Amino acid sequence: MFSEELTISVDGLGKKYDIYAKPADRLKQMILPRVGRTMGLHGLKYHEEFWALRDVTFNVQRGETVGIIGRNGSGKSTLLQMICGTLHPTEGNIRTSGRIAALLELGAGFNPEFTGEENVYLSGLLYGIPEKELRKRFDSILTFADIGDFIEQPVKTYSSGMYVRLAFSIAAHVDADALVIDEALSVGDIRFTQKCMRFLRDFQKKGTLLFVSHDTTAVTNLCNRAIWLDRGRKILDGPTKEVVEQYLAEQHAADRASIGQSVALKPSVRTSDEIKELPMPIHGEQLAYGSTDTVVVQAKTINAVDVNNKTKVFEFDPDRAGNQFGTGAAAITNVSLASNEGEASQLFLGGELVSLSIEAEVFKPLEAPIFGFYIKDRLGQRLFGDNTYLAYSEQPVVADTGRRLRATFTFRMPVLPSADYSIDVALANGSQADHTQQHWIHDALTFRANDCVTPCHGLIGIPMHSIKIQQLGS
Ligand SMILES: Nc1ncnc2c1ncn2[C@@H]1O[C@H](COP(=O)(O)OP(=O)(O)OP(=O)(O)O)[C@@H](O)[C@H]1O
Question: Membrane spanning segments where (predicted)?
Fold first, then answer.
């Protein structure tokens, strides 16, 4: 039975396309089977069957945010279009409850000949919002979209960014119970994207969200759950962090396999597409603490309290680390955090200088090794990270077979809200733009930040150089 708590229920869903090699085959398929049947011939086929989606089953509960990930052509858009009712399934069932607003890829939704304003009313009516109500909301829709006088121009004259601004603004104003978003946010500029993200974070508190993106970081940031599609099939459905990690690992394995490189270090070792976007962030992406000591102006107060932002580090244990992948030409053998004086320690303070060391053993010569790390929060959001590339780009450290290497990053442990965190470490070979991961370990070290007496508003806290209130003359 379809529960009231379910917003979307998808059962055995499939979409088949008949692919014809040439247009004439389509005609033959329409006419000849009938002729054949009258002659007692059956099963004449002039096309290939192609299943864009097959056998996909899942439920989305009211209030859930679910990310859909997968390679190009894996069936994500096909799935969303069927959920929104713009595409008919070949087999299976979809049940939805409440009002679903869709923000599908460009091309869907608006009548290109109509002006933006006409499209606002048209879309509103399709969502069942009475015209009188739409009039009341029109100004707010326009303000959100921020496309100025273009609202009076036909939509066919819009840039893709304007199109998405208007489409998103409408979807945000129709009191939807569920929002279905397909790649739309990749089009807008940063300010608009931030505005949409704020809206979505607010919407998440009450509504159901289905979110397709190639940007796995965005999926990780926004969704608690993810569904991975591949070649039209559901591969995995679960907590976002796990699904994204496995998806990236699988992608890298496939990429490596396609260029004939070995991929496995050990059964749990996987490869990842992160290689393309990383090795790890370049300098400048890292947290902007100065090289000189920062004065924490609240230090007096903080030190007066027994429990400040202490961070407890759990030692590196290769068997307990998360997913791993890489070619296996080198292996990371140890990871540790020490105080800046080099003392191995398990407790640090937010704002303290610490050193992260990554040691590795080389099995095959590396002409340009790059070590890197990321610090991630509980949802897998990357808070900051860095790599050795820029420091050694002019003169890479060449490592022969049998050598052992150690990279050390010294940085200020940020002030962190009380929660669990983890550190990904990696050793690649090559350049920032073109490299191969030799060994990447997700969650090599984990740590817990304790009671945040130190001011920390947001993902990480920056120790303040000064805080003042001044009386100004009237
Ligand atoms: N009308 C159609 N006729 C034939 N094949 C189609 C049709 N529409 C989609 N397909 C095929 O179905 C498969 C799934 O397409 P879909 O657009 O759903 O993938 P996707 O995961 O959204 O891809 P992308 O990430 O590139 O947007 C693709 O191989 C695509 O070529």
Answer: none
Question: What does pTM read for this prediction?
Answer: 0.67
CB 225 within 8 A of CB 238: yes
ipTM of the complex, rounded to two decimals: 0.96
Let me know if residue 259 belongs to a domain: no
Does one domain contain both 234 and 342? no
Q: Is residue 77 in contact with ligand 1, taking CB distance under 6 Å?
A: yes
Report the distance separating Cα 311 and Cα 241, nearest Å: 23
pLDDT over threshold 80, residue 259: no
Helices first, then strands: H and E counts in the chain: 11, 19
Is residue 168 included in any domain, yes or no? yes
> Has residue 133 got a pLDDT over 80?
yes
Inter-residue contact 263 to 327 (CB < 8 Å): yes
Are 114 and 35 a contacting pair, CB within 8 Å? no
**Any atom of ligand 1 within 6 Å of the Cβ of 75:** yes
Ligand 1 atom nearest the C-alpha of 19 is: 4
Residue 52, ligand 1, Cβ within 6 A:
yes
